[in-house]
Amino acid sequence: MKRLVAILLLVGALCCVHRASAQYYTWGSDPVGLKWSTMRSRDVRVIYPDTAANIARHTLFYIRTVQPDISYGFTHGPMRIPFVIHPENFQSNGLVMYLPKRVEFLSSPAIDGYSMPWLKQLVAHEYRHAVQYNNLDRGVIRALSYLLGQQGSTIGLLCMPFWAMEGDAVMSETQMSSFGRGLQPSFTLAYRAMERVGDGRRNIDKWFCGSYRDYIPDHYELGYQLCSYACERYGPEVWNNVARYGSRNPYVFAITRVALGKYYDTNVSRLFRETFDDLRHHWDSLPAQDDSAQSLVRLPEGNHTTYRWPLPLGDTVVLALKEDFDRPARFVRVDTRTGEERTVCYVGSVSTRPALAGGRVWWTEYRRSKLFEQRVNSQLCYMNLADGRPRTFAGRRNVLYPTGAGDDALAWVEYNPDGRYTVVLRRGEREERFAMEGLTEIHGLAWDDLTRALYVLVTDDSGMWLGRIGAGGLEPLTRGAYITLSDLRAGGGRLWFGSIQSGRDEVHCFDLERGTEYRLSTSKYGSFEPMPAGGEVLMTTYDRLGYRLTRQAADSLACRVEPARLPLNLVNPPRRSWGVVNLDTVHFVYTDSLAAEPKFRTKRYPKLPNLVNVHSWMPAAFDPFEVADEKNISLNLGVTLVSQNLLSNTEGFFSYGWNRSEGSLFRLGVRYFGLGVRFDLDAAYGGNQMFYGLGGQRTPSPDKYYSVGLTATLPLYLQRGYHTRQFSVATGWNFSNGMVANVGNIRWDEETGSITNIEHIGFREGLHSLSFSVGYSDLTRLAHRDFVSPWGYTVSAGYTFNPSDRHFSDLLSGYVKLYTPGFLPHNSLTVAATYQTSVGGYKFPSGYAPLSYRSTRLVPRGFTSADIVSNDYFAAAVDYQFPLCYPEGGIGSVLYFKRIRLNVGGDYAQFLTTEPWRYRAAPPEGEGQIYPGAATRRRIWSVGGDLIFDVNLFRMPASATSTVKLSCYRPSTGGVWITAALGLPF
Question: How many CA atoms lie within 13 A of 935 on its CB side?
């Protein structure tokens, strides 16, 4: 059973890099002020905020359009599943998941999109997952769903490789467009630059699971290549057969290998090698082509480096954004004569490219709101070139593509949650606003100094095209085409941008006077992000080491481009067509949508009645919150019901269990964070009543135990560029019917210093606990190879007291932890310390407080909280962690060792306690006596280390990397403390 729970937790983590909680996955709560509605057809329901009503109508229209074709190659169609739209998150994404089952759309269009509108991409991709899930939920898996609810269906996700699920979904997205995601030249860019993919390695898991040494394309890119080749060679039913076999035989080890062998006499390793042999044969057949641009920098081996968005600062200096495996994103100044560079400043997660205006560099960053995880903004930022310090432009949180607009003016694009874009031109305090029609997407903004006008890069149903912002609004310059354009700049009467027209990513320009497009670069693999610089053009060019800064003369290779609707399909070998609907030919008509509204049954979606949504159950009693938070699994006979609402702001469980020693046990847990403040409610009934007594007391027969508690936490997420700061304030109350020693009745013999009535002081029922805590942390961003924040600190303080019992001591505690780099790259030194003590309450003459709370934070390894006392308790810990090696091997297709780390640590603690009590039995007439020991200071310590393995199971992708930690410490009490722990990727 423990293995089953662990599998469920791991599967829930596979689709996320955000937040997983207990046995289910959630992206977090939307802002509290949203009003929700639902629109449904016979088998599809869309849940959306009222601000996103137009987005919801488009989504339902596209879903209904693809329904006849979305299950191509599979036996069964898509499952009946609700779609939930989150319109206020700029980090565009989609998710299909159980627990509860739903499709979640982050509806803000992707910044780096291709020529099909974002909602069409989401429907073609995510709805295909609903088909896969429905075909996996058959046979034994369907039987498990009756036994376990949706948790049983989740087990079916182990029956089809994760890379195959995503690769098949990318195929669907590609087949339902004119020149879709899988055909983009950038989708094979990294593979084309590698000499031989997979050659010389018997174990190919690295290509599925990622690496800390080398750049490995993600499972979307790999999955598409494997799935498209398998479809070409074995037919479109290949993954249907794998899903059918797996759902009926989930107990078979290496299901995919067995299924491929059974139906096609092949396996994943052979499929992998045949796929890349076919791709390499095609790529080798293409005419050789060299890079036309001259490199400005040299890229190091073994540290994949990315330069982005070069900006000229005079004739000899270029400012660019740089990121590599060793260090996170930062601005650097590069001397174009020598290639030498200097770091200017570190930045956060950049959403759109930087631009120069008024002696400043402007760009935007993803910034999560203070309270709500589903409100991720695109914040306008700037840096004065004089001081190199990044700053935030207050109040501009939905900004994209800032650009200078002449005469110290600034322009940018704003995106609103209703799906509409607006171009803003700001001169001084005056703003001009140009709103786009419908769901027209803007993917670039530039100002031309010669024509003194703003230009945009547009995506709509006709594809991508260039437009001008005139007095009357948006004016087209080119016709729409299904050719991906990117990174728009302007200057000297030209528009500069990236284009895939030639079949590769190349730099193009558009002459505004002549109305003619030219290709400027030739590349072996691809060139990107052009920026005019006098008579030259700066760009970035890709090779196997990363993206280099390059430049060339602006007109050295100008090649006129004739208008076309599609690019050349150069780098992709021929693959069979599915013959499904092409969403590029589908146009949403608003009047038709209005006419269909009664048919779609639009109505209000009330939050309160939908807070409870029981999606899973188990024939065992356990606490799923405890499993996730404390990695502790305690099982009893019984049943557990698990709930999470579709808006992902309420989680809960109820369990009934039984065991021989305690009898019936009832547990309830609810978490709600829809208001920004997080509320945690817990209640328990059953088991034996707890006693908080003194040695020698007579304890009556225990009654049934019960408790109830409520905690409110205000977490403020203060993200600011390179630093992420968090501040939280929490208060909690708990009551249980525990029996507490009535120490107020103690009688002392002052001559002997003994308690004379220990057996009769009795107990009082009821233990209250009221706590307050505050915490603050400041951590810097991690690089790809980092495992701990290189710089940062965490501090917290807490106060706990019993408001109903003056004899119970209060607890005062504090904690601090510092993060610093080690002596070598990617080494980490952390130092932590804590102090807690009992304040007030009843105390023995020695100063010992017999009734007190305690904090379990920073207990020396090898000891438990039962070994410490919260009287003047001080503890410290020092840890030094470093990577030992990067094996990148293991048991093929089963267990992949990505990295092995060693942590060397030591702990120390001291606290005030008492010597062992002495008890003298009662004479024939009288009472026994207790002699409390004298106060003494006890010191404990432990030293040892942890061997930590970063691993991937069953060729799961890099985002699902887990850790296995083996710990060995020697405590001061003697012996050896050995333990093992599994760390899941959330």
Answer: 13
Q: Is the pLDDT of residue 278 over 50?
A: yes
pLDDT per residue as tens digits for the range 666-721: 999 999 999 999 999 999 999 989 988 877 777 888 899 999 999 999 999 999 99
Residues 629, 138 contacting (CB under 8 angstroms) = no
At residue 672, the pLDDT reads 96
Question: Inter-axis angle of helices 219-234 and 268-284, to 10 degrees?
Answer: 90
What share of the chain has pLDDT > 90, as a percent? 81
For 186-235, the pLDDT digits (tens) are 999 999 999 788 776 678 999 999 999 999 999 999 999 999 999 999 99
Tokens of 614: 């029981």
3-state secondary structure of 506: strand
pLDDT of residue 915: 65
Say how far residue 219 (Cα) sits from the centre of its chain.
Answer: 16
- Of the candidates 149, 22, 147, the residue with the CA atom closest to the CA atom of residue 622: 22
Tell the residue number behind the tokens 């890349």, with chain if given. 276
Q: Give the per-residue pLDDT at 602.
A: 87
Distances (CA, A) of 248 to 77, 97, 160, 243, 264: 18, 21, 12, 9, 18
Give DSSP secondary structure letters for 669-681: EEEE-TTSSEEEE
**In sequence order, what E strands does 70-222 have?**
81-86, 93-97, 102-106
C-alpha span between 292 and 911 (Å, rounded): 71
CA distances from 329 to 157, 306, 345, 723, 836 (A): 35, 9, 9, 12, 40
On the CB side of 434, CA atoms within 13 Å amount to 23
Residue 659 sits at the vertex; the CA angle it makes with 155 and 864, to the nearest 5 degrees, is 85
Tokens of 786: 């980092």
> What backbone phi and psi angles, to 5 degrees, belong to 571?
-95, 0
Asked if 528 contacts 550 with a C-beta cutoff of 8 angstroms, the reply is: no
- Least Cα distance to 212 among 871, 964, 961 occurs for 961
Q: Token digits for 644?
A: 């999470």
Q: Can you tell me the distance from the alpha carbon of 231 to that of 577, in angstroms, rounded to the nearest whole number?
A: 10
What is the residue-wise DSSP string for 84-121? EEE-SBSS-EEEEETTTTEEEEE-SPPTT--SS-HHHH
Model confidence at 754: pLDDT above 90: no
CA distance 719 to 725: 6
Tokens at 937, concatenated: 């200071």
What are 540's two structure tokens?
Answer: 């970035």
Q: Retrieve residue 924's tokens.
A: 């024939």
The partner residues of 681 in beta bridges, in order of sequence, read 670, 710
- For 609, other C-beta atoms within 10 Å of its C-beta total 8
Kind plus residue range of the DSSP H or E element containing 181: none
Residues 770 and 733 sit within 8 Å (Cβ to Cβ): yes
HSE at residue 727, side-chain half, CA atoms within 13 A, is 5
Please give the average per-residue pLDDT across 758-764, as a whole number.
84
Specify the pLDDT at position 919: 57
Confidence class for position 14, pLDDT limits 50, 70, 90: very low
β partners of residue 617: 641
Query: Do 239 and 227 form a contact (C-beta atoms < 8 A)?
Result: yes
Of 477, 462, 363, 460, give the one whose Cα is nearest residue 419.
Answer: 460
- Cα 791 to Cα 808: distance, rounded to the nearest angstrom: 40
Q: Return the closest-CA partner of residue 319 out of 347, 287, 289, 294.
A: 347
Mean pLDDT in the chain? 92
In what side-by-side order are the strands of the sheet with 441-448? Answer: 441-448, 453-460, 463-470, 473-476
Task: Give the sign of the dihedral formed by CA 207, CA 209, CA 211, CA 215.
Answer: positive
- The answer to whether the CB of 362 falls within 8 A of the CB of 355 is yes
Q: Which of these, 968, 964, 955, 966, lies nearest to 985 by C-alpha position?
A: 964
Beta bridge partners of 710: 681, 733
Burial letters 685-721, b for 16+ CB under 10 A, else e: bbbebeeebbebbeeeeeeebbbebebebbbebebbb
